[in-house]
Amino acid sequence: MNFIGLDIHKKTISYCVKDISGKVQSEGKIPATRQGLREWVGTLAKPWTVAMEATMFTGWIYDYLRPHAAAVKVAHPLMLRAIAVAKKKNDRIDAGKIADCLRCDFLPECYMAPMEIRQRRRTLRYRKLLVRQNVQLKNKIAQLLMESGVSYNKEKLHQQGYFHQVLPANPEIDPSLWPLLKLTREMIERTQKTERALLRSLEADPLLATRVERLMTIPAVGHVTALTWVLEVGEVERFHSVKQVISYRGLCSGEKTSADSSRRMPISKQRNRHLQTVLLEAAHLAPRLNPELAVLYEREAAQSNHNQATIAVARKLAAYLLAIDRGERAFVTHQVHSSVAA
């Protein structure tokens, strides 16, 4: 077996091929294109296994090499400390160190979702980008009105009827301001149509429909939360406990322990930020829809504060999602007798 380390960049890929004893068989650079990979793979002696660091370019290279290699592995970039803190660092050395980690079974491997999930995940994340841009455009309309001293109804500003019928009659709006307002509004409406179309396409996808339908039986879990769970988690079987799920979503604090000293850190930044954001948003609404979560929220809020209570509800939601997805069953609500829930 030959072990190959790849250091991937936008235009080039540095590679290092080593045998089981660590002797370098070959090394060099190839173009970061499918044609370059095709020609390079034809020169390799089989069998071989390859490892690379997780980057923006990893996905298509991973998919291309899988049919040719005995195994393709992806390393977690934050765990490759030997490369990050090296005194001498270049592409050739980095590729060699990745090959050594693979050869010695020290590679901090990270999960690569199936190609079908990654394709749909790309669509969901693009939809999230459109939602974020939509919020920025709405804020821009309010900013344009405020900086011109225009009075308006804050609650109705972004309603279609108010914008096209009531606002044009406002004498405080300068004629030079109206073209900018109309252009921004048109962009908002176009973005909303695209965002809704992307969401409908994912909701109707037969690969996701069954899982999403089961997850939506949980109170406070809607289409976006269920789709985000399915596409960001991928294969739910890779999580063996609720603690792993909570850690993956960044709903727990970091820890630094040395000798007799132990210190808890703020909420970890090493998390799936897409799933963390959605779960925290759902946790704000969940106590209104689920008496059991309402009891949990009030108890945690009394002991600490409302932010900690929201995080506790998000952890509970993560446990619900894991149980329903892994058990392949619908959510059943139990009656909770409590004056708080009432």
Topology of this protein?
Elements: E1 2-8, E2 12-18, E3 24-31, H1 34-41, E4 48-53, H2 58-65, E5 71-75, H3 81-84, H4 91-103, H5 115-147, H6 160-166, H7 178-203, H8 206-215, H9 223-233, H10 242-248, E6 253-258, E7 261-267, H11 273-289, H12 291-303, H13 306-327
Parallel strand pairs: 1-4, 4-5
Antiparallel strand pairs: 1-2, 2-3, 6-7
Provide a descriptive summary of the structure in words.
- The chain is α/β, with parallel strands linked by helices and 342 residues long.
- Helices cover 52% and strands 13% of the residues.
- It is built from 13 helices and seven strands.
- The strands form two sheets. The chain has a five-stranded mixed sheet with strand order 3-2-1-4-5.
- A hairpin with a 2-residue loop joins strand 6 and strand 7.
- Helix 11 packs across helix 12, helix 11 crosses helix 13 and helix 12 runs antiparallel to helix 13.
**Share in helix:** 40-55%
The percentage of residues in β strands lies in 5-15%
**What is the chain-wise order of helices and strands?**
EEEHEHEHHHHHHHHEEHHH
Gross morphology is globular
Query: Helix/strand-derived class?
Result: alpha/beta
Mean pLDDT over all positions: 89
Short description:
By secondary structure, the protein is α/β, with parallel strands linked by helices. It is built from 13 helices and seven strands.
